[in-house]
Specification:
Blueprint: E1 13-20, E2 32-39, E3 43-47, H1 54-62, E4 69-74, E5 77-81, E6 84-85, E7 93-96, H2 108-118, H3 125-135, H4 150-162, E8 168-172, H5 180-196, E9 201-205, H6 208-214, E10 217-222, E11 225-230, H7 232-235, E12 253-264, E13 269-274, E14 277-282, E15 291-297, E16 301-304, E17 315-326, E18 332-339, E19 342-349, H8 350-356, E20 363-368
Parallel strand pairs: 3-9, 3-10, 7-8, 8-9
Antiparallel strand pairs: 1-2, 1-4, 4-5, 5-6, 10-11, 12-13, 12-15, 13-14, 16-20, 17-18, 17-20, 18-19
């Protein structure tokens, strides 16, 4: 298991077509209706607000719920169609829940042993050691779950899921039950999964920050329907700012991809080179030349006519105004911008827009707070 190692699934796809109304629902209630084609490699984020169908979609993938009408194939392997349904226990998958769900009476090592015994193909000792190393759990193996932090328990749970030798890893909001500190603790390990694993990962989340840091592909669900599909830059870059969609609260955030090009140990900052310009971020320990995602919220972008040398804002980029759209709050306006032809959005007051004499085609400077950028 080496970084970017060839995969038999490379260039293959996951075909997931589900029409499903969960048990207990009436015709007027929620129905999952999704037809999706996903890459069978990398991390696909299943994104959307609460109640959008993310977990139901994942449970249909796992076979925990049997869609009334479903077609599911993983890189050519059929798990479900109109005449066939492969039960969950026969599907080569790993499933990580919101809660770690470790056996409380077993040490971390014995929790792993349980997975090793259940694996369709017994993992080699080299494979076992690699998984333990990737998740950084060697010092934890003799401890019981109640002796571990929430982040440590989740890392053991992920390792246990991997040692089943799955063809796909399903993760249902694995950080949802963790506080901010524990989320920051576990995120580097999730990023390592993205680098080292050659199986697809489906990652359910309602956090744009997690999507920016982990995903290479995104599905956006709302009320059981597929709304958007594509790379993070595509999904969070081409916004219908006048939309009244229930997703309007996330539609003014963009995601940029970049590379770490410099680290400033004195100030604990890292410089990330993006197509839209260079940004200083809080240094999370990401290695030089690593690829990262950056989520930038419209609320954290301000505009000026000139660059300011005496400012606490480190990130100042030249931009061009493409469009002004009224916000849902009449005091504000959404400004669609281009930073070197890369989409950016600012949310400013109508008064500020008038004072700056904002107009389509105008050249301005965007000020982006470093603390507001999520790496």
């Amino acid at each position: 298991m080496t970084p970017n190692s060839p995969s038999p699934q490379q260039n293959a796809t996951i075909e997931a077509h589900f029409q499903h109304r969960p048990k207990g629902q009436t015709q007027r209630d929620f129905t999952l209706s999704v037809e999706a084609s996903l890459p069978a490699q990398g991390v696909t984020a299943i994104f959307g607000p609460s109640g959008s169908g993310k977990t139901t979609f994942l449970r249909c993938m796992a076979g925990l719920e049997k869609a009334e009408h479903g077609v599911l194939s993983i890189a050519g392997q059929v798990w479900q169609n109109e005449g066939f349904f492969l039960p969950t226990h026969k599907r080569p998958l790993g499933y990580v829940f919101q809660e770690a769900s470790l056996f409380p009476h077993l040490t971390a090592q014995k929790n792993l042993n349980y997975a090793i015994k259940r694996a369709h193909t017994a993992p080699s000792q080299e494979r076992i050691n690699e998984v333990i190393d990737i998740m950084g759990i060697a010092p934890l193996l003799k401890q019981f779950p109640n002796q571990l932090s929430g982040g440590e328990r989740q890392r053991v749970a992920i390792a246990r899921a991997l040692l089943i030798q799955p063809d796909i890893l399903l993760m249902d909001e694995p950080l949802a039950s963790l506080d901010t500190a524990r989320k920051r603790e576990i995120m580097p390990y999730l990023q390592r999964l993205r680098t080292y694993l050659n199986i697809p990962i489906l990652y359910v989340s309602h956090s744009i920050e997690e999507v920016a840091q982990l995903a290479s592909h995104v599905l956006v669900l709302d009320n059981g329907r597929l709304m958007e599909s594509g790379t993070p830059e595509q999904v969070f870059g081409q916004h219908d700012l006048g939309s009244t969609s229930p997703l309007h609260n996330i539609e003014s955030t963009v995601i940029w991809q970049g590379q770490v090009v410099e680290r400033d140990a004195q100030w604990h900052l890292a410089k990330v080179a993006c197509a839209g310009g260079e940004l200083w971020l809080r240094d999370t320990g990401t290695a030089l030349n690593s690829s990262v995602g950056v989520a930038i919220e419209a609320n954290q972008v301000s505009l000026t006519r000139h660059a300011h040398t005496e400012s606490s804002v480190l990130n100042q980029l030249p931009v061009t105004v493409l469009e002004l759209v009224p916000d849902s709050d009449p005091a504000f306006v959404l400004v669609r911008l281009h930073a070197q032809h890369v989409p950016l959005i600012a949310r400013i007051t109508q008064r500020s827009a008038a004072h700056l004499k904002l107009a389509v085609g105008g050249a301005f400077w965007a000020h982006i707070k470093s603390a507001a950028i999520t790496q």
